[in-house]
Amino acid sequence: MGLCDVCGEALKEVYSRLPIFKHTTARFNITHPQHNQQTRKACWVCAKYSVWLDEYYPETFQLWKSGQLHSALRPSSYITIPEDEGSRVTSLGFALQPVNSTSLDELDLVIRLLSTQEYKSSTTTGLKTTNPTHQASLVNTWLNQCVNTHERCMARQKRLTLWYPTRLLLLGPEPGDVRLIISAESNMEGPYMTLSHRWGRTSYKKLTAGSLEQFKNRIDISDLPVSFKETMHIARLARVKYLWIDSLCIQQDEDKKDWVIEAQLMGKVYSHSFLNVSATLANDDTRSLFDQSNHPFDPTLLNLPCTKKRSRKVWSVDHDVWQDEIEQSPLQSRGWVFQERFLSPRILHFGERQLAWECHQISALEMFPMRVPPGLIHGSRSDIADNVLTAKVSTNANLLEFCRSWEQIVANYTRTDLTFNKDKLVAFSGVAKTIEVARGDIYLAGLWKSVFISQLAWTRARDDIVYHPRELSLGRAPSWSWLSVDGDVISPHPENIRKHFANIAVFPDPVSNGSSAITASGSVLLRGLLLPINSVEWDKDNLVSRFTIGGFTLQEGSDFSETHLDLEGTKDQVIQLVNYGIALVPLFATDEHMQCIAVACIKTIRGIPMDFRRVGACQVQYRQFHVHQKSIQPGWEEDPSTLFFPGKPSYNLIHPLARSLIRSIELNLAGKRRLFKLW
Question: Which InterPro entries match (predicted)?
Answer without folding.
Answer: HET (IPR010730)
